[in-house]
């Protein structure tokens, strides 16, 4: 509903004007002010879209009131109402950005016509601003998701993470941690509520749901302790689910000092979610029971990035060998079978969570019977690994047949657009990391290189048209800077775009 403020020192003029406007504009909300000072005060409380301002008034005149209000609220539009049709007043009104003026007295039809045109312009401007706002929100949402995937999942994207962080304009502190929300199947509709909760705090970034995981990077509030801040947020997020589903759980990673270290916090949050059967539906990584002596000398490879990458790449023999060596190590140290079993379970849980992130339905690994010795532990563990391996192979064999061709065709046809691994993943319902692996295995290059090749082939065709400028071709091939485009072209083709064009035209 549009708001209009009538400003005139004569009540009969105000009442008459309001009657005409209410009769012609049924959705217009109208208020009145008796002078310029009152109009300035009402602009702060009423927030009108349009003000009809009389020029001659006692105290602050209309032009002075317009300037005063414009200085504070530049988006408010004005129509001057005056009995003085002089060039001087018109010039001053134009300088102040007044949209139009009405002479006293005016016919009702003239009043409706002038005000109607201005209201239409204001509405058009509002629609344009709303479209830009929505587009900006979408862009920022994509940037936010891109930050998460680059930081936590080691993806390579066109736009570097530092630029994306700058785009979001959310200041981050030197202390931050990952909160990993496990969302049960059928509860994905809670995502907008979680996003609203995180954004209302203006201290965190939220990613997309991968499998059943929703990763969130939280910046610490130095005025509160890390645990109290994380605890309050975890409780608030859990309370968003009206269904109170048992599958809800939150893992809270350890605090790190920079964005470069945030993957470690993600791994810790992942480990904290391994046992979702706890009565309290959240757990800090530091509260996960540490079995045995921490300084037992055995490196925890499964808590590092390389281990998760091996799972994503399907390197099952490497993973099985690592676990076998772990069991042998603890057997030689005389560690109890129960403690060794729990250490192996920690590895299995990491593997299962990574597979779930890739879109596979993996049950949390458990030993279905009490293990009595190391031989039984090795057999049971090998059996579980074999089942996970088969699930992995079946999943990708089923999807891979037509996927790669579809991806290449899509990239070739849309190479002029901003294509990310994330958008490709949504197109074919595969994890971005696996898509990157496919390009490496099948073409020997990453997807960015393939996208660049497609853009260069398109550029070669466009350069054959002498009517097109290099700048036009830059934009039509998906780049924004002609200088950068020229550098990429020369690197890929060995000559500059202009040199290529000359050789084509000579032929």
From TrEMBL:
The keyword Electron transport does not apply. Signal peptide: none annotated. It holds the Pfam family HTH_18. Residues 3-119 form the Response regulatory domain. Keywords: DNA-binding, Phosphoprotein, Transcription, Transcription regulation. SUPFAM superfamilies: CheY-like, Homeodomain-like. Residues 405-503 form the HTH araC/xylS-type domain. GO terms for molecular function: DNA-binding transcription factor activity; sequence-specific DNA binding. This is Response regulator. The lineage of its organism: Bacteria, Bacillati, Bacillota, Bacilli, Bacillales.
């Amino acid at each position: 509903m549009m708001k209009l403020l009538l400003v005139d020192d004569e009540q009969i003029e105000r009442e008459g004007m309001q009657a005409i406007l209410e009769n012609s504009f049924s959705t217009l909300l109208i208020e009145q002010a008796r002078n310029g000072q009152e109009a300035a005060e009402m602009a702060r409380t009423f927030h009108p879209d349009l003000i009809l301002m009389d020029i001659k008034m006692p105290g602050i005149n209309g032009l002075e009131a317009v300037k005063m209000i414009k200085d504070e609220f530049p988006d408010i539009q004005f129509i001057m109402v005056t009995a003085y049709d002089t060039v001087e007043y018109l010039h001053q009104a134009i300088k102040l950005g007044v949209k139009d003026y009405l002479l006293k007295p005016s016919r009702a039809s003239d009043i409706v016509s002038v005000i109607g045109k201005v209201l239409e312009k204001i509405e058009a401007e509002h629609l344009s601003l709303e479209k830009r706002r929505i587009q900006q929100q979408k862009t920022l949402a994509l940037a936010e998701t891109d930050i998460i995937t680059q930081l936590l999942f080691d993806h390579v994207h066109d736009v570097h993470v530092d630029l994306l962080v700058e785009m979001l304009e959310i200041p981050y502190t030197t202390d931050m941690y990952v909160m990993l929300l496990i969302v049960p199947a059928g509860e994905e509709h809670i995502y907008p509520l979680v996003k609203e909760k995180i954004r209302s705090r203006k201290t965190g970034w939220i990613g997309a749901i991968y499998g059943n995981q929703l990763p969130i990077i939280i910046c610490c509030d130095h005025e509160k302790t890390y645990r109290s801040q994380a605890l309050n947020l975890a409780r608030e997020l859990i309370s968003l689910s009206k269904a109170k589903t048992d599958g809800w759980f939150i893992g809270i990673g350890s605090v790190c000092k920079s964005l470069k270290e945030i993957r470690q916090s993600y791994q810790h949050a992942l480990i904290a979610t391994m046992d979702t059967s706890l009565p309290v539906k959240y757990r800090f990584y530091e509260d996960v029971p540490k079995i045995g002596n921490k300084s037992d000398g055995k490196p925890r490879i499964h808590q590092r990035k390389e281990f998760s990458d091996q799972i994503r790449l399907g390197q099952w023999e490497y993973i099985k060998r690592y676990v076998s060596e772990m069991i042998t190590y603890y057997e030689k140290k005389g560690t109890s079978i129960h403690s060794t079993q729990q250490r192996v379970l920690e590895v299995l849980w990491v593997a299962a969570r990574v597979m779930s992130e890739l879109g596979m339905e993996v049950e949390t690994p458990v030993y279905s019977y009490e293990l009595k010795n190391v031989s039984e532990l090795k057999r049971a563990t090998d059996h579980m690994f074999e089942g996970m391996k088969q699930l992995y192979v079946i999943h990708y064999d089923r999807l891979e047949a037509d996927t790669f061709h579809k991806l290449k065709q899509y990239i070739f046809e849309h190479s002029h657009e901003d294509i990310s691994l994330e958008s490709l993943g949504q197109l074919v319902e595969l994890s971005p990391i696996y898509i990157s692996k496919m390009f490496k295995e099948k073409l020997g290059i990453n997807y960015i290189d393939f996208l660049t090749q497609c853009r260069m082939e398109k550029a070669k065709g466009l350069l054959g048209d002498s009517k097109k400028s290099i700048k036009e071709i830059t934009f039509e091939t998906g780049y924004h800077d002609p200088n950068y485009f020229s550098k990429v072209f020369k690197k890929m083709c060995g000559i500059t775009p202009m040199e290529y064009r000359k050789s084509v035209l000579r032929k």
